Amino acid sequence: QQADFALWKSAVTESTDATARRRAAGKLLESGWGVSIDLLTSLLKKDDQPEVITAVADAVSEVSNPPQAIFNALLGAYERSADAVRESLEIAVTQYPPAVAIPEVSAVVHDKNIAVADRVALIGLLSRFVEVETVDALIPCLDKQEPAAVRQAAGKALAMIAGVDLGESRLRWENWWERHRNAGREGLLAANITRLQQELKDVRKRNR
Question: Model-level pTM?
Answer without folding.
Answer: 0.87
